[in-house]
Amino acid sequence: MIKLKDKIGDDFVVFGSAPLYLLGVVDFNGFINDLDVFIKNISVVPEDATPVTFHKNQEQKLYKIIIDDLAVDMGSYWPGYDGILNNIFFSPIKVDGFKFANLDVVYNGPII
Q1: Would you say 75 and 61 are in contact if contact means Cβ atoms under 8 Å apart?
Q2: Torsional class of 58: left (φ above 0), alpha (ψ -120 to 50), beta (otherwise)
Q3: What is the mean pLDDT of the chain?
């Protein structure tokens, strides 16, 4: 995550499976498939990132980069999801200087 911070700064929140492993909700088997991060400002997305759509919805884009063979998917605000994404961004759990999604906030948010 330090290499990610070097690449995009520290204004991001990790969500997806990583917080589930961190908080013991899902047993960690020693392998992370990918890292999902929420960013407020897409201007931090590196130029070499590949844009992909979420469920083929053109309004829901992710930006993919690879760091040390780990896929990192960065997403920003999507139309209609401003509220839950603000809650995720402003209510994180902080561990070793990194922000992770608060599972209570995610659990009470809409299903994407």
Answers
A1: yes
A2: alpha
A3: 89
Residues comprising the chain, all counted: 112
Q: What domains appear along the chain, each with residue ranges and CATH number?
A: 2-107 (3.30.460)
Tens-digit pLDDT profile for the chain (112 aa)?
Answer: 889 999 999 999 998 888 888 888 888 888 888 999 999 999 999 999 999 998 899 999 999 999 999 999 999 999 988 888 888 899 999 999 999 988 887 777 665 5
Half-sphere exposure of 80 (CA within 13 A, CB side): 6
User: How far is 5 from 11, CA to CA, in rounded Å?
Assistant: 8
At 29, which amino acid appears?
A: N
Sheet holding 50-54, edge to edge: 50-54, 57-67, 70-75, 34-39, 12-15, 98-100, 93-95
Backbone angles phi, psi at 16, to 5 degrees: 80, -140
